[in-house]
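Standup, Tuesday
Yesterday: got the pipeline producing structure tokens again.
Today: sanity-check two examples.
Blockers: none.

Example 1:
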Amino acid sequence: MPALLPDLAPWKASADFRRLWASGLISNFGSFLTFVALPVQLKDLTGSAAAVGAVGAVELIPLIVFGLYGGALADALDKRRLIVWTEAGQGLLSAALLINALLPGPAVWPLYVVAALSSALVSVQRPALDSLLPRIVAHEHLPAAASLNSFRWTVGGVAGPAVAGVVVAYAGLGWAYAADLLTFAVSLAFVVRIAPSPASHEAARPDLRAVVEGARYAWSRKELLGTYAVDLAAMFLAMPLAVLPFLADELHAEWSLGLMYATFPLGALLVSATSGWTSRVHRHGRTVVLSAALWGLAVTAAGLATDVWLVLLLLTVAGACDMVSGIFRGAMWNQTIPDELRGRLAGIELLSYSVGPQLGQVRSGGVAAWAGVRTSVWSGGALCAGAMGLLALCLPGLMAYDARTNVHAVRLREQRAATAPTRV
């Protein structure tokens, strides 16, 4: 039984990790409220699956541009400062959504503008968050820290959508946006207490040359490229978030929408809460590919099921498979990438796990408008499972990755062992 429980070593050893964890827990809860409220508001205002799916399109360009540049900023500037300012900016955007929702006639265009600006802020913040983790957590504790961060995210992901479904249905959209604004304020109180994390002395200036340098390093690491390809394909082909409001209607279970949004985080939560076994897995690449294939199969089955409870169960299984993939992708990234490149590679990682879902919203919404909601869901899952089989054949470096023997993992492990880990 102890082998299944989460490893709390990072939490016990680092006060800054505890602060960052608490901040993320609170902020994620509020963000998931808006995550549900915004597409519901778009559905109510437009009645169009394509219009809801278009949110992914407007988020895409800021995600690409600021993801890459945000990685360079994370390497060149103080990481804590970037996190603080972007968290404050997210709070202002929540305030804008609240004001729009309280108007007698809420407009559609502010929803797209806020979605685009939020995508830009998240794209700047996430590389700083990801690259800060190896500085405040000992090298051998990084897989455990990734699992604990996943657990934190999934708690908010389960509670946020479930609460949002009730709040939106019975209290109104304004209350959901107001609660999100409050969580950002509380989150900031934790973030500002984290110790400064200035740039490494080897860090490059945040310019185009630095971005290109990071891209060249990523290109030289075929096993990393493999993780990007797997996640991009899985999310683009099989992420059904944009059509969930319409799927709930089609199943004559409008009450289930909040639960549908909560299924993916719930599945992830179940994995994170029993993640002690992850430290004993060393073939990370194979696990990433297999779990992504299972994600696709679970989504396929959900698209074919006609009982709403079975759909909820299958989507939960899909969320669990996606979390397994995410844990081992994160372990490969954190245990092999040098500190001076960590921000830029985190920016590229952000693109790999964010561009896919954004494009996936466009794909799922477009296919639903053309061929139907159910077809959009099951066909995407089937294509994902097939794509994973092809990628397994085409990515021998990823399939052969072993954390015990990989040259980059060994080198970074030796470097961390030679210097005392940061203890705060």
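Example 2:
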Amino acid sequence: MPAPRPARLLAALLATPLLAGCFAADSDPASGASADGSRLRVALAFPPAERLSPYGADATILSRLGVTEGLTALDGNGSATPALASSWRQEGSRGWQFTLREATFQDGSAVTAQAVAASLTQAARAKPAPAALSGVTLTAEAVDRHRVRITTGRPDPILPLRLSSPNLAVLSAKAYGAKGAVDPVGTGTGPFTLKKVDGSSSATLDRYDGYWGGRAQAAGIDVRFVADGTARTNALRSGDTDIAEAVPVAQAATLAQGTRRETATTRTTSLLLNFRSGPFEDARLRAAARAAVDTSGLAKDVYEGHADRGAGIYGPAVSWAEGRHQKPVGRAEPKRPGGTRITLATYDNRPELPEVAQVLKQQLERAGFRVELVVREYSRLESDALAGKFDAFVLARNSLVDTGDPVAVLASDYTCDGGYNLARLCDKDVDRAVAAAERTTDTAERQDAALRAEAEILGTDAVVPLVHQRVLTAVGRSVKGLLLDPYERTLIGTGTRR
């Protein structure tokens, strides 16, 4: 086990920018709003896949709508910043103490150290483990009413970053039911409280007037989950919605001037090949699939210039990785597919993905594979993908959304025990490289270790980076104060209004 870290190295890790750019707010949130405010109408691309549990992909729905918060948050430079915790300090190599601000849950109960410890304990026990806790064990206990101590199983130099994850949102005791069920309705701490969820079609939120960060300017949020990207864009053009996320690139030119926002993100679209079962257990067939894929036209043609050609797991928005990707390690020699049948799946919530998959299908068939293409909504695909029911999967993944730390996504997505390992990758050299990166404290050395692990991962050919995306959001002319960030964790804040 590594020796305790010098404080100066930890400070550098938590203060050094991980990204280029910063959060974009459309205007000063303190400027003119009526006493009660108007309700915001929002069209989101992804309906709940797991009944809005904070432990899976639904967590970002809650954070983007201002329902939930963690002890910390990320600023525009990728550094940990106060949220429910006003400050923190390290105690030895494995312990941290967090001091809480005065705040209340949306059910009126106080945010105490006991409540925080109980909430984090529930997250630590969740099965499967939240992506933010992949490979990490922690215990939380109250020191007194306003201080909570968190101890990790091994030294974790990025714990303040990790606790910013939407997966580790703090909820009141009422949220937790039997058999691990979690209900965020009325139990969060954010400026908006979830009042009603109508399955996968809509949700209703009201302003939470007791929010510690000040009263929101919007009276509430009316959310519709609209998987079809053209329908979302049309709703903005017709005035039926105020904000529409994930605008298809083909629709961008149809939006009136001033109603489109483009945000550079840490999202990478990749082809994931099933490492553990089916044809792609064979490293030589994975190599054949990787060799068949030509990414040169995807960014220009499918994404119409609103993306960059895939360079690795980390894209151009991760500034320190730009131009520093290492050559993949230990790739196998391709072999002829010889008519091997494979199933390629993706989802249509992000409208470019089916087109990307269609291009890949053609390329793979030219190489000698026989390809069946499956396209569904994400909520109807995730469980099958995690269970390994597809041979290949096209995924758009924000590499820093879980923790803001470049190593965490490697642990959650590409190690044997990773909780979001859609490639089902399990390779001892990859696990060893990721573990070495996790143990590294110094910022520059941790980045170097992450790039070495990336080279090991890409060397397995279980992951083929395709493009690095920029996200388009349609915004009504009257909307002010929208929060757009490279991690795609935020959207609506206290100053968002119309």
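Quick observation on example 2: The chain has a mean pLDDT of 91. DSSP finds twelve helices and 19 strands in the chain.
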